[in-house]
Amino acid sequence: MVMNMNNLKIFMKVAEKLNITEASKDLFISQPAVSKAVKNLEKSLNIKLFIRDKQKGLMLTEVGKEILILARQMKVIENKIYQVADRENKLLSGKIKVGSFPAVSTNILPNTIALFRSKYPLVTIELVEGTSNQIKEWVEDRTVDMGIVASPFDPYEFEIINNDYMVAIIPENHRLSQENKIDLEKYQNEIIFCKGGHEIAISRIFQKNNIEFKENLTVQNAQTLINMVKNNLGIGIISKFTLSSMSHNLIIKNINPRITRDIGIITHSFNEVTPATKEFITIMIQSHKSESFMDQEVSEIDI
User: Fold this and answer.
1) Is the pTM value of this prediction over 0.85?
2) Could you tell me if 221 and 265 are in contact, meaning their C-beta atoms sit under 8 angstroms apart?
3) How many helices (H) and strands (E) does the chain have?
């Protein structure tokens, strides 16, 4: 037997008013609809809830009185259920402001946002895009609730979600198209760098290998770097993760020395972020932490 909660609510109103007409007015439904709901409830329970006295009018039966008490208890429990749900929804409502660089917005965030929205539809997500350095500034001044950036992550708390490495890109007709690897020291005068958070990882490896870091040509974004390389202006150095989100027909080469970096979520404190942000971070980690661009072999990127 399935209890019809609507019929039970109508019954409680009739029991309160002990008058079908007044109950229908309070409920904004017709008298026949009220009478039908009470009769259906009586039928489903196989009991009589009301008796009609010629002098006193509508009266509850003894079992009707017991049912009314239980019905009110059910209403209290129902209200508590909605209160718990409302409390949860209020925690997971409002807005999450996420700082991200374009490659993450393309490769990672769509799936994360889709999963998050399916679970928490009341939360609004605002995406602010910039370079890793800009995002770190936004996290610092709390312009965003969380940032997704390239390493290094200090001084923030962080959670790594992907590994990444740098590659070289050259045109199809380039003289080095048959080389297995591009030696950065040998061709340092031809390198085009892209400023976007990569420069720290590059400069550290250069220092470690005693390679002079020459800024022959520096650009601000990946698309500009690709265009420069297409026009034979040099050898582009870019992260494989970033490159995977770009459309191009360039040859991709491994480089020597190898330059690696991590991609991670940063905040001032994971314990202090809003519940909605914490859930968003959890879903992102669960969805993408196992994905590692480090697993791609040279044979996959050498064309």
Assistant:
1) no
2) no
3) 12, 12
